[in-house]
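User: Could you check the structure of this?
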Amino acid sequence: MDGSFLTGAGLSDLWDTAVRGADFYRIAPYVDAAHFISVPVLPNGDPDCYVTACQHSMMRNMNRGRSFVGGIYWGRFVYNDLYAWISPCEAVASMAASGASGYASYGMCGLDDGGVLHRMPEAFCRSLEEGNRWWKEVVPRLGGRKAAKAAVLFPSAMALAETFDTEHNHDRRLDLLGWYKALEDWQIDVDVVDGSIFKDQTADQYEVLVLAANDCYALDPDSELEQGIAAWVKMAECCCTDRWICLHRRALAAAVFPMKRMRLSAAAKREC
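Assistant: Sure, the predicted structure tokens are below.
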């Protein structure tokens, strides 16, 4: 069963932030903390802690320069018993690795999503207790998180404008998560960022920039963003440093940048 087709199963979206018409990246500068609840599930309903890790990278970058609080759903989700497949400990560790200073949780005692903590299996409760004990011991010792070397550009336009039932929507949304997983598996720390990194010079810290699938970019074009990406590539050429840009063919509609090196995602290669 594809969970995204079930009524009310909006949290199967890889970025639930947009389901309610909110772009948290744009809201973040005006609030004390940008925060949402993560559910470690793919659009088809399969549990996957990479989703929570990726979404907490988003939260970390929404709150650049300040601490942030993570968010997690505990319980049986509306169409799958997530924590029969992954452990609470794994989810807690994913949030800790993201640099969160704490986390809020949802669904433990509510009946709406089937998350009733006192009726969860004993193994779940033991794992959650152990994960929280580990968090209290380890997180205060971590200190500052080292700067990431790779950035994946969040497809804000597609997140807001493209619906679940748009043809091949899942593949395009999974493009961002696929790049995140690949880079992390290669032991390259990743930030999921928005275009503001080119306005505050944060982009200069990155050696790899991934433009994930964003086929709705034409609905919300950003000339300042395009100029920033072009300048980022040109700076590498002037300084003779290695900078890599990974471009999905539909990431930025009709935007072509002068670059010496370009890698296409597997999806883009198939389309070419």
